[in-house]
Amino acid sequence: MPLQQLLSRIINNDQQHARFLNTLSFMENAGARKISASEHPQTVTTMILKHAAEEHRHAYYLKKQLDKITAGICPTYTQSELIAPSESWFYLNKLDLFTCRYLKQTLNLSGTALQYAAYLFVTYAIELRADELYPVYQNALTQAGHKVTVKSIILEEAGHLEEMIAQLEHFSPAWELHAAKIVAIENDLFIKWISSMTRVINS
Q1: For 18-47, what is each residue's pLDDT tens digit?
Q2: What's the total number of domains in the chain?
Q3: Which end of the chain is more exposed for a tag (fewer CB within 10 A), N or C?
Q4: What 3-state DSSP class applies to 50?
């Protein structure tokens, strides 16, 4: 099912829409926590602190948008309040795992160098995806005349993508070669995530 069609169907069902929106919040929060966990305790940069803070803010913003569907709906991140919860967590964790494995084997990285490289490449892949997903979601919301909006997130995610490209260019002249591998991994995981959501919607 095309992404636009899937999101339109989700939006037309308040319960499913709330769980989807809550899942986006969950994933933004998980991403922020992963960024914070990868920070070096002494040499963490302002950019990384800014990025983690903005991802946390996105998670909070999406939570607040839930009130535009039904006040008080999906107050936690328990599985019953997420859509395809296992697959959503699988998407994030496997992307981290496979990226670290690739960078370790290909660039012989370890320790903090591996953590930082993984942060750059994983974030790049996720920001590319956000650059696709959020505009399609916003378009579906606009077509449905829905009060929920993610326009502010779209602007910030575009800024994150530019920052990641600048950092990756500094990291390695061959960054695009490695990024293509990570993006391919992310794409496979994203397809599985979308397939899981489609099964939930069709069940």
Answers
A1: 999 999 999 999 989 988 888 788 888 888
A2: 1
A3: C
A4: helix
